[in-house]
Amino acid sequence: MASARGTERRAEILRATIEVIAERGYRGTTLGAVAERVGLTQQGLLHYFPTKEALLLAVMDERDQWDTGGGSRGADGWRLELLTSMVDYNAMRPGIVQTFSALLGESVTEDHPAGEFFTRRYVQVRGNMAGVLRDEFGDRLPSGLTPEQTAPLLVAVMDGLQYQWLLAPDEVDMPAAFRAFVTLLRGGADGPER
């Protein structure tokens, strides 16, 4: 079990990493820059996070904690409006979205240290999204699909929009595109308002 000081120091390092990512982007974030920000040597930083990948995975885990209000809780109380707000929020933090997207892309290669994290994460996220859809629509969406059939599509749209937005932020309005997708989920422009 980590000491209170160690836990506090790890949290300080994660905050500093998020700041450096926001300022320099994923590729510009180095262990040396983060170590300097928190007053450690690079060796001292490696005591808390043995690799850059381990540090960035901890940042992604922290990101998920913020996004879900605690991470482990299920979809209880979530609504599509909260997901829309989350997309709006992500549009204000391109460095974190860039880091998530870069790590996700790399994680599909064999033996990548982020592979297990993202595999586990997507199982949880699909389950949470199915819960959101079930709370909103019951057992069937207006399209006739079940929440379980639609959940992977919802996740794909959210993550796919992030990639498109990162590549062409002036052309892709991520929040507006997600709102359009929510309209489709609800049965189109003539679907029931919620």
From TrEMBL:
Pfam families: TetR_C_6, TetR_N. Residues 7-67 form the HTH tetR-type domain. InterPro entries: BetI_C, Homeodomain-like_sf, HTH-type_TetR-like_transc_reg, HTH_TetR, Tet_transcr_reg_TetR-rel_C_sf. Keywords: DNA-binding, Repressor, Transcription, Transcription regulation. Residues 30-49 bind DNA. Transmembrane segments: none annotated. This is TetR/AcrR family transcriptional regulator.
